[in-house]
């Protein structure tokens, strides 16, 4: 049996692409390179352990629970049609005591200027599972800067359920665009749906992946085993599942249909191949079967410590915040509680370290919420806005989803714990809870990067007194002076 990891980055034969893994200590080169993953050639932004090995997706980063990761990002970007600065977010890691290494530009750091490097040095003491990394500067990751990050656990509680778990069992799903992100438009439609970095022309936001499997992990949190035959995966989410390879030796289609755009599988669209060892090298003949056991988020339950924080009743949190999402058709911008997120010129973390402690003193105005330490926070997020469903990601935490999209039931006993949740359609209201036990300025945002770019985010400044006394490395202090001195051509993202 195989333990397979799948993640969707809004961003071929399955298991035939062996990822050149790096980590836990490595150089991480960011370069421009022309690639044609769906047959259309375009310049892109890629990462590699060396400049020559830069690829899409980027190199798989691996390590073990308890490792200290030291990833030296070397920025060698030169193409002015795309952003030439960069910043890397290590998606799903809590970054306890190292909030400065979280990576979102203008929140925890200034971007890394072209021709310079920055060492992300962080520990992973108590997390294992499926994570990923991507650019967190504007919409740069839509140009290709993303990849998988897997942390193994010597004491994996699910270890007896599978035989194989390595880089060959990582599956990535991604949207792909033919135009540079900086000039692609407000919310462009992807041209292709890529599976493990390969696809064919035409596509849309990829989501369902159909195959009989047992889910054992969601967003880096072990779950009680749940058998399903299809997954609805939103941007930024990850799952690990056990696939029992007990069928006759042969070739089998894996189908990944998009939410919008070109659906179906004609001509090999939205398909990958699961090919058994010794099977002939030819296309499968398997037919599509209707899903009878789709994944429902409300059926996912944590394997350990399942209860949501706070009292198991409505109003059982210390801090309750309602986040009302709207869209202004006159400005074509999103708002949360009437405020539009604009990246501040001084990172939120630097503002706090320089003395700002209260929400009214922090920029962007109306977008920063200060949270006291060691309290239970309950967030209610409205659904149904244009562009729904919005997959919201919270940095610095895994949260308990006490009310999922499409459900009116509140579960305080054993709700799924994750870091990306769909807000749903129509009149949906999603409710999540977390404890403020990790100081840092943590951004909550829609993980459709085009939506983040037009305002769909807020920042939670958690325990500002502790943030003020944090000590980032000296190189962190040099990021802003270098970035602020860049000319328009050095910044990139120009129409050419």
UniProtKB/TrEMBL annotation:
<keyword id="KW-1015">Disulfide bond</keyword>
<keyword id="KW-0560">Oxidoreductase</keyword>
<dbReference type="InterPro" id="IPR001117">
    <property type="entry name" value="Cu-oxidase_2nd"/>
</dbReference>
<keyword id="KW-0479">Metal-binding</keyword>
<feature type="signal peptide">
    <location>
        <begin position="1"/>
        <end position="20"/>
    </location>
</feature>
<dbReference type="Pfam" id="PF07732">
    <property type="entry name" value="Cu-oxidase_3"/>
</dbReference>
<feature type="domain" description="Plastocyanin-like">
    <location>
        <begin position="214"/>
        <end position="276"/>
    </location>
</feature>
<dbReference type="InterPro" id="IPR011706">
    <property type="entry name" value="Cu-oxidase_C"/>
</dbReference>
<dbReference type="InterPro" id="IPR033138">
    <property type="entry name" value="Cu_oxidase_CS"/>
</dbReference>
<dbReference type="Pfam" id="PF00394">
    <property type="entry name" value="Cu-oxidase"/>
</dbReference>
<feature type="domain" description="Plastocyanin-like">
    <location>
        <begin position="55"/>
        <end position="153"/>
    </location>
</feature>
<dbReference type="GO" id="GO:0046274">
    <property type="term" value="P:lignin catabolic process"/>
</dbReference>
<keyword id="KW-0732">Signal</keyword>
<dbReference type="GO" id="GO:0005507">
    <property type="term" value="F:copper ion binding"/>
</dbReference>
<dbReference type="GO" id="GO:0052716">
    <property type="term" value="F:hydroquinone:oxygen oxidoreductase activity"/>
</dbReference>
<dbReference type="Pfam" id="PF07731">
    <property type="entry name" value="Cu-oxidase_2"/>
</dbReference>
<feature type="domain" description="Plastocyanin-like">
    <location>
        <begin position="342"/>
        <end position="464"/>
    </location>
</feature>
<keyword id="KW-0439">Lignin degradation</keyword>
<dbReference type="InterPro" id="IPR045087">
    <property type="entry name" value="Cu-oxidase_fam"/>
</dbReference>
<dbReference type="GO" id="GO:0005576">
    <property type="term" value="C:extracellular region"/>
</dbReference>
<dbReference type="InterPro" id="IPR002355">
    <property type="entry name" value="Cu_oxidase_Cu_BS"/>
</dbReference>
<keyword id="KW-0186">Copper</keyword>
<keyword id="KW-0964">Secreted</keyword>
<dbReference type="InterPro" id="IPR011707">
    <property type="entry name" value="Cu-oxidase-like_N"/>
</dbReference>
<comment type="similarity">
    <text>Belongs to the multicopper oxidase family.</text>
</comment>
<keyword id="KW-0677">Repeat</keyword>
<dbReference type="InterPro" id="IPR008972">
    <property type="entry name" value="Cupredoxin"/>
</dbReference>
<keyword id="KW-0325">Glycoprotein</keyword>
<protein>
    <recommendedName>
        <fullName>laccase</fullName>
        <ecNumber>1.10.3.2</ecNumber>
    </recommendedName>
</protein>
């Amino acid at each position: 049996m195989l333990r397979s990891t799948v993640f969707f980055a809004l961003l071929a034969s399955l298991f035939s692409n062996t990822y050149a893994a790096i980590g836990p200590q490595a150089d991480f080169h960011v370069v421009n390179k022309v690639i044609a993953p769906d047959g259309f050639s375009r310049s892109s932004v890629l990462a590699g352990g060396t400049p020559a090995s830069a690829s899409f997706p980027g190199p798989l980063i691996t390590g073990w629970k308890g490792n200290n990761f030291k990833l030296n990002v070397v920025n060698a970007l030169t193409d002015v049609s795309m952003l030439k600065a960069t910043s890397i977010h290590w998606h799903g890691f809590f970054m306890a005591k190292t909030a400065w290494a979280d990576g979102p530009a203008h929140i925890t750091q200034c971007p890394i200027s072209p021709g310079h490097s920055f060492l992300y040095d962080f520990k992973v003491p108590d997390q294992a599972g499926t994570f990923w990394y991507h650019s967190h500067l504007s919409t740069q990751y839509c140009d290709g800067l993303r990849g998988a990050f897997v942390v193994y656990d010597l004491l994996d509680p699910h270890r007896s359920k599978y035989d194989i778990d390595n880089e060959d069992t990582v599956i990535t799903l991604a949207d792909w665009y033919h135009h540079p992100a900086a000039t692609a438009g407000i919310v462009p439609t992807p041209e292709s749906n890529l599976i493990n970095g390969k696809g064919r022309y035409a596509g849309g936001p990829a989501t369902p992946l159909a195959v009989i499997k047992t889910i054992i992990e969601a967003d880096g949190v072990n779950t009680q085993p749940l058998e399903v035959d299809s997954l609805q995966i939103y941007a930024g989410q990850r799952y690990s599942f056990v696939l029992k390879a007990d069928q006759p030796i042969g070739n089998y289609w894996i189908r990944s249909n998009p939410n919008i755009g070109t659906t179906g599988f004609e001509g090999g669209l939205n398909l990958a191949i699961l090919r058994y060892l010794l099977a002939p090298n030819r296309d499968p003949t398997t037919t599509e079967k209707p899903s009878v056991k789709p994944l429902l988020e409300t059926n996912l339950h944590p394997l350990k410590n399942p209860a949501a924080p706070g009292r198991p009743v409505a109003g059982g949190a210390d801090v309750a915040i309602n986040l009302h999402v709207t869209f202004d058709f006159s400005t074509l911008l999103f708002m949360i509680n009437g405020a539009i997120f604009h990246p501040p010129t001084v990172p939120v973390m630097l503002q706090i370290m320089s003395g700002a402690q209260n929400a009214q003193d922090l920029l962007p105005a109306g977008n920063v919420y200060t949270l006291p330490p060691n309290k239970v926070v309950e967030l209610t997020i409205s659904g149904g806005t244009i562009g729904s469903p919005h997959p919201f990601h919270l940095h610095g935490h895994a949260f308990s989803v006490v009310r999922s999209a499409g459900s009116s039931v509140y579960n305080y006993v054993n709700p799924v714990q994750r870091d990306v949740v769909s807000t749903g359609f129509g009149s949906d209201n999603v409710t999540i809870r977390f404890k403020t036990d990790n100081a840092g300025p943590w951004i909550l945002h829609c993980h459709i990067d085009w939506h983040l770019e037009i305002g769909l985010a807020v920042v939670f400044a958690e325990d500002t007194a502790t943030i003020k006394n944090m000590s980032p490395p000296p190189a962190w202090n040099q990021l802003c002076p270098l970035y602020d001195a860049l000319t328009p051509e050095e910044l990139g993202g120009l129409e050419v």
